[in-house]
Write a structure and sequence with these properties.
15 strands; seven-stranded mixed β-sheet; alpha/beta; 6 helices; about 375 residues
Length: about 375
């Protein structure tokens, strides 16, 4: 008798545990969890494939509840109503947007709530029923269904316009055949348009250079101090590699097919330094390292470097110069100017005249600088 009573007690205990487990699971699914929940209804106007009881409900991406029921309305076969239970702290308002998102690799659907403005009024229920939220149009439509709908529309458009498309393809074939038969004429037309618009192969300008001064009279002395020659200061008119030609009435233009190898101030700086070296003064820097401190600076100002096209074409070069010591004191100042006639206004003759005038100016500049130092 004692053994039978013990077995009966154990069986009753197991049945009670199993019943309690079923009751707990049923309570979780019907009551919506362990904490307090607020219930809402959501009306969808399209199918919500894959949404199940127990699917998550997200508010701004944060899980706040789950779907507790899915209902069909016989009076509206196209719509579905979902019942949800969420945390009462979720700020659901009148302008909260309702939709469905697909998450994970499998694309599991979840109900998505997106919060509205803080100034919007909270939703309220009527007649004791849960608040009804209206989902966005086609909220339950997945990417696959959307793609199928697009392909179906494309197929409809193609089917309805089959004859015009066939005619268009035939016209394209005729047009390409006509182009092939008249390819030589088309090439001629395109070449003419290219010449008309200034395209085509551009003529490369001829590059002229300035000749350094190479012949000097015997110098009374060669300075021992270090001399720095910065770029000449000038107006923006001369900050170019173009060769300037000025008309008689004062209007300036540039030589079409001729230019210097670099912007004019850089070319002048390089040729002045080379002229000092040709005279035997080798301690001259055009642009040295910042750590090198020069004893003197030769500051130049380019005032004129052009050809004037008047009764006689003349190349005019004018250069102002100042010698400054290491303390910034001006030692000597002088202006050098030379005018040389140009044989013509051709690029070669203009560059030769400017080069000759510059050679005379830089020769006097070197001699004057060496004598002053």
């Amino acid at each position: 008798m004692e053994n039978r009573a013990r077995y009966a007690l154990i069986g009753a205990f197991l049945l009670a545990v199993i019943g309690a487990g079923f009751t707990f699971v049923y309570w979780l699914n019907t009551a919506g969890g362990l904490g307090q929940r607020t219930h809402y209804r959501i009306a969808f106007d399209s199918p919500i494939s894959g949404l199940l009881r127990g699917s998550a409900v997200l508010f701004n991406g944060v899980r706040v509840g789950e779907v507790t029921a899915l209902l069909l309305d016989p009076a509206k076969p196209e719509s579905v109503t979902a019942a949800i239970a969420i945390d009462p702290g979720a700020p659901v308002r009148a302008d909260t947007r309702v939709g469905i998102e697909f998450q994970g690799l499998t694309g599991a659907p979840v109900v998505s709530l997106v919060g509205g403005l803080a100034t919007s009024p909270p939703v309220s229920s009527t007649a004791g029923e849960p608040v009804l939220l209206i989902a966005e149009k086609n909220a339950g439509q997945g990417m696959g269904q959307a793609a199928r709908d697009v392909l179906r529309r494309i197929d409809t458009v193609v089917a309805e316009n089959a004859e015009p498309l066939r005619s268009l393809i035939g016209n394209i074939d005729k047009f390409s055949g006509a182009l092939a038969r008249n390819s030589d004429r088309v090439d001629g037309i395109l070449a003419g348009l290219e010449r008309l618009t200034g395209g085509g192969t551009k003529v490369q300008p001829h590059v002229y250079d300035l000749v350094t001064a190479r012949t000097f009279p015997p110098l009374p002395k060669i300075p021992t101090g270090q001399l720095s020659v910065p770029e000449p200061a000038t107006l923006s008119l001369y900050e170019t590699e173009k060769i300037l030609v000025r008309a008689a009435e004062g209007d300036g233009t540039t030589l079409d097919r001729g230019q210097w190898p670099d912007v004019l101030p850089k070319v002048l700086q390089a040729r002045i330094v080379q002229s000092f070296e040709n005279a035997g003064y080798l301690r001259v820097l055009g642009r040295g390292p910042d750590t090198v401190k020069a004893d003197y600076q030769l500051l130049t100002e380019l005032r004129s470097f052009q050809v004037s096209a008047g009764n006689g074409s003349n190349a005019d070069v004018e250069l102002g110069a100042r010698i400054v010591d290491a303390n910034g004191r001006i030692i000597e100042t002088r202006v050098f100017r030379k005018t040389v006639p140009s044989k013509s206004l051709e690029g070669r003759d203009i560059a030769a005249a400017l080069g000759e005038a510059f050679t005379q100016v830089v020769t006097e500049l070197v001699l004057w600088t060496c004598a002053a130092l």
